[in-house]
Amino acid sequence: MNDDFGRGRDSRSECSRMKKRDFVIVIGVLVVICAAVLSIYSIYQFRAVRFDVPANAILVIEPYKYGGIWVFDDSRIGLVREPFVAGVTEMMDKLVEDIADAEEGFRLLFSARPFPGHDEKLVWRRAEGGGHWYYSERHDLEGWLCPAISRYFRKAPKEIYVKAEAK
Description:
2 domains; 9 strands
């Protein structure tokens, strides 16, 4: 009787271990599936907020100063107070010298192709940190455009033509 009782206890214990192992395997598979779905979703979301424009299109944003830094919003692609940093702030200051109250906001037109009346040509120098360094020969300044540039251009253009104008 003791032998049967002991074997029954061992088989229940073994069954319990199998259930736990199966449970852990199922949870592991679910975690992997969830991670894959989230990865695919995040890639889709990033692409969904980027818009591809023809190479000759003129794009428009309206930069303004916030906390002493040039920033811009673009609700089409989910950007709010996206800052211009690393030399671009100085470029912006030069670009708007003749625009009254530019700190309150101005229109910045930009394109990968020259367009009538553009004020400045920025020349690509190198990629770094997901963004790209551009050089202004006119002002002898270099500035870094953050990874948000990829939301406007599929590939960083070799040249970006810009024009600043009052709102």
